[in-house]
Design goal:
Length: 585
Amino acid sequence: MKKRFLSALLLCAIACGTTYAQLPPVFNQTRQAQSTETVTRYLSPVKILWQTENASANIKNEQRLLKPGNGQADLANKDMCVLKSDAKIKPALLFDFGRELHGGLQIVTGMYPGNKPVKLRVRFGESASEAMSDIEPKQNATNDHAMRDMIVEVPWLGKLEVGNTGFRFVRIDLLDENVELQLKEVRAIFVFRDIPYLGSFNSSDTLLNKIWMTGAYTVHLNMQDYLWDGIKRDRLVWVGDMHPETSTISAVFGNNEVVPKSLDLSRDITPLPGWMNSISTYSMWWIIIHRDWYYHNGDLKYLQQQKDYLVKLLAYIITKIDKDGKEQLDGTRFLDWPSSENKKGVDAGLQAMMVWSLTAGAELCKILNEPVTEKNCEAAVARLKKYVPDHNRSKQGAALMALTDLMPAAKANKDVLAVNGAHNFSTFYGYYMLQAKAKAGDYQGALDAIREYWGAMLNLGATSFWEDFNLDWLPNASRIDELPKPGQKDIHGDYGAYCYIGFRHSLSHGWASGPTPWLTEHVLGIKVMAPGCKVIEIKPHLGDLRFAEGSFPTPYGLLKVKHVKQANGKVVTTVDAPKGIKVMQ
């Protein structure tokens, strides 16, 4: 885009007899201006979900707004949707755009009487009920982080574009009395990175296939200027949240600049001895992400840029271990929100995170030729493993302890993770619960949990995965793509906790995408064993699936696998690997 723009400037300069150097300063400054990696598409709504009751005389030809548009006002002024207000009725429409989107709204108007701007209220919502809500404390609809409820004026015979948030539904209300508004188009402005889905997953279970793709799409939506945790809220770079997201990016999109850009931002705004996002585990996730990202992409030059900060961070973390091998971390002591009231569970998780991050740090220091820090990390891990904390039946804490060998994975699964199915799962740490179940050999239990927990969100109308979800919310709950019926619970407005009460709850949160990389790693069986994907192990676990197939992006090209279960239960595997990759089976 930048090249095309600069070429146009040069053509203009030539036509005018002007050299590039003589152009106004603002044009020369385009070489230093920030650019974006996103593109924009315009989408018409797929459905009008609701309109003002008893207003047939006030709303005419509204179905016209479901037709494809071109974003251009014109003098033909044909086939318009007409909204008319009077002293009693101010008409309104609720649009459903069919799936979660990031962006805003484009409104194209016609030649209505009065030739003056008309005032509208525009409300975005990730659920139908959120788009119908007011900013008030009862169900906690807010304008935090992104404006989703605003009053605007639309021009006569023109176009207005508003909004920058996450949404699927939009309600517009005509606010002025005794006016007519002609609408040619009301379209979503969809802003996203136009990148291919290189990784894929297909199996005999269509629900698992949909879950894999929904996780991929959720992260894709959040790959904006930086890698955000949510497109409505918080629209920030939270390093801990990034680990499931970067795992998904590696499995679906491969190398993408949004990851190092976001990792570097977190590093640069967090001088030591500060903790990233003020949370000790988040600095530890930064180390773990760098380890995993290097293993997938093999970019040693980029890893070397982290050396100075990494070595100092590891040294600082080691100071937070007492003489008995117990962590003594300061800062905010946090794993995820649902586990936050189980203090012993959080303590157990922090002990495990120390083991995990220092183990990853030792591995990186070996690659970076930092033998002193490598040995210090290994010695610290040995000390940490002498202290075995009490997980207090926290699924988060037990999962991390299993993954770091602070307790046997089989025991963690039997005593904690498998108890009561996917109840007490969480969208963020659900990824590590699934990983711990896989380590325990309970692949079928993990598949069942994915179907039960993430599948329940899809059954409620989700097209992206949520900031949090609780199976206890299910009884008598409404779908997000319907307005709650009398006596029903509003799954969006009536639930949520901590920082995500009610409508403030994000319904597109990248940290919830864990099933996507999990299905790639454990069902397709694709595991990276050496930096840059030079060695990949293929070890599928189909559980009750008849077949599974898919692809995985590597620096050498796409790796493709297909697994088919025979009548005798044996799995026959076909692998198509690019040159440069050693496959272990």
